[in-house]
User: What shape does this take?
Amino acid sequence: MSLTPKTPSESLTIHTDLVLPSETNHIHNLFGGELLARMDRAASIAGQRHSRCITVTASVNHVAFTKAISLGSVVTIEAKVSRAFKSSMEVYIDVWVEDRESGSKTKANEAIYTFVAVDENGKPVEVAPIIPETELEKQRYDAALRRKQLSLVLAGKMKPEEATELKALFV
Ligand SMILES: CC(C)(COP(=O)(O)OP(=O)(O)OC[C@H]1O[C@@H](n2cnc3c(N)ncnc32)[C@H](O)[C@@H]1OP(=O)(O)O)[C@@H](O)C(=O)NCCC(=O)NCCS
Assistant: This one.
């Protein structure tokens, strides 16, 4: 397997779908769990495109349900690997809702997931590094280590005193 660095756009995964009645809550907006599942699928494919391996969801680091998405909406999910570590990858997801008449897209939500590349036995395997290109990709790349440390501390997998990037925010 080649570990030649890749750009975030090489993993770009775009998923567009409608909101159907069975996917809504009592007030006819998209059910949160349905959106989480759609984002998980798109992010998983982005992780596979980057690593060319099986990927598993290790953590959902952040979700912001900023705007309700109504029944009948056309929802587009864009997922890209924002940073790769050893076997783990941060995937950044932007969710857009398209206006039926004008075609303009409004940002409705964003989320950050962590995926791990694994072999057939579920053992983590190394992935290629990321080289961010755009200004936004560079910002997301730079902040990813901080988010990884926060996620590991919250999961009880890292001691707070070892989280150097988090300490740097306060010291
Ligand atoms: C994710 C999983 C492969 C990690 O395995 P592990 O034995 O903990 O392996 P490691 O400790 O070596 O961690 C592997 C990588 O995941 C990262 N990781 C693990 N948990 C994490 C978390 N909560 N947040 C961020 N990163 C995490 C580690 O930092 C490490 O990253 P690195 O290799 O880039 O440095 C394992 O816990 C697993 O298979 N979980 C179930 C996944 C799954 O089924 N998901 C679907 C849910 S239904």
